[in-house]
Structures are given as C-alpha cells and as structure tokens.
Amino acid sequence: MDYVTLNNGVKMPQLGYGVYQTPPEETERCVLAAIKNGYRSIDTAQAYGNEEGVGQAIVKCSLPREELFITTKIWISNAGYEKAKASIEESLKKLKTDYVDLLLIHQPFGDYYGTYRAMEEAYKAGKARAIGVSNFYPDRYIDIAHFAEVVPAVNQVETHVFQQQKVAREYLAKYHTQIMSWGPFAEGKNDFFNTPALKEIGAKYGKSVAQVALRFLLQNGVVVIPKSTHEERMQENFNVFDFVLTDEEMKQIETLDTGKSLFFSHYSPETVEWFMSIV
C-alpha cells in the first residue's frame, strides 16, 4: 500500500474503499470483505445512510482502531455550527469510534463556514485527525482555505480519466491540500470500461481497464476510493501496485481529459436547485 502525507502530517492510504450507494444492510459485509482483502481506508458519509454498517465492521474486523483510516462527511441538512457539531457526535456514535481520521464537508452549500468551525473544534478536540472539504471547486476552495484557521487537508472531487481536475490540482497543490477522487470509474459513463486507450494499455500489463484507470490516478498523486459490493472486484481494484505506467502511457491517458464533469456542475443553477430540493 502507498500512502500520502496530509498537510498536518497524518498519513493516509492512497487507495481506499468507498461505500457510496452501498445498501445499509450490505455495508457491514462489504466493509469486512474489503478489510479482509487489504483495504484499511473506508470512506462513508452521513448522506449515505450506512455509517452504522461501517461502525459494525470496525468493531467486528478485530483490527486495532489505529490500523484503520475512517472518513465521513457532513451533509447539507446538518450545515451550520450547531447542527454540524451535533451531527459529528451522531456520526461518531454510529461509527462506534471516538474519532474519525478524516472529516469533510460534503457539499459547498448552506452555512458551510459554520460547519467548518464545528469541524475545527472537533479537530482540536481529537475527534477528527484531519478535516477538509468535498466538491469544492477552485473558487470556493480558495475562499475557505484563505479564511479558515485550519487549511483543508483534503478536497474530494469528481476525478477520473475524463475529468482529471488539472486546474483544481494546481490550486490544491498551492495550498498543500490533497486531492481525493470520487467516481474514479466515472460510474461507467462515457462507455468508460470500453475506452480503447485503457484497454490497449491494460492488455500490455495483463490488467483491466479499471486497474489502468486507478493506476493513472495513483501515479498522479490522487487518493482513490473505488467501490464494489463484489469481493472479486475489490481484489481487482486493490491489485494495482505491481505495475507502473510509462511516461508515454501517462501522456496518452492525459489526452482523454475533457475538463468537464460527467455528472453535474455546481455552477449550474439547476444543479443548485436540485440540491436544495433534497434538503
């Protein structure tokens, strides 16, 4: 396993396991399977509705808590200082742990300044080893990074071969914030798993399109959290440390970048209205 060192000195596995859209009743089984297959970083969120399943797995896996790296995120409905503060306690209770390793603001909406103040307090109290944001585009990221007392350690954003976040990565590096990918396989959009360049490179190494895509992100210094409910896929996604892409292959994959989201834009009024409608 490779690790990245966050801006406060905390070490984080560069490859983790995500439980987005994992049914609550399946989460414990899936997380235990992931841990059995070598994963030590688990990414969940209040909005996923499965923190309890992750908590059960933490208890049942028999590993010392310090060997695991647990991430959760504060949802929009818990935005603001008081609500965020209460929600952090609730998440810790559901996760059956005294602390999380990484605590993020899930979306840049609502009173996220108040949310971040509550997170800074949790950080200082040892309830979070690192704090950061998710889905903050460069403009909002620079804003909060400039005014916050604790510069975000991580920004988790849509990152895959078709959206490589080249501009965002430039600014994150400037402020020493680690980029973390959600949707490393673009959730199959754009016929992802049949991308000719990835298939061609994969054939050379005896690797799948998914493995090549993960390897590309890892070599670009991106933290990845692929998700699967199938153990054989968990194993496949974990088996990406035994080959290295050449400079030429990296450049070839770089040409796939469109610089645009395959999901939604936080700059779009329609997107913002949709988020407000689900709160």
TrEMBL record:
InterPro entries: AKR, Aldo/ket_reductase_CS, NAD(P)_OxRdtase_dom_sf, NADP_OxRdtase_dom. It comes from Roseburia hominis (strain DSM 16839 / JCM 17582 / NCIMB 14029 / A2-183). Belongs to the aldo/keto reductase family. The active site is at Y48 (proton donor). Substrate binds at H106. The keyword ATP-binding does not apply. GO terms for molecular function: oxidoreductase activity, acting on the CH-OH group of donors, NAD or NADP as acceptor. Pfam families: Aldo_ket_red (PF00248). The record marks K73 as: Lowers pKa of active site Tyr. Keywords: NADP, Oxidoreductase. Residues 20-256 form the NADP-dependent oxidoreductase domain. This is Oxidoreductase, aldo/keto reductase.
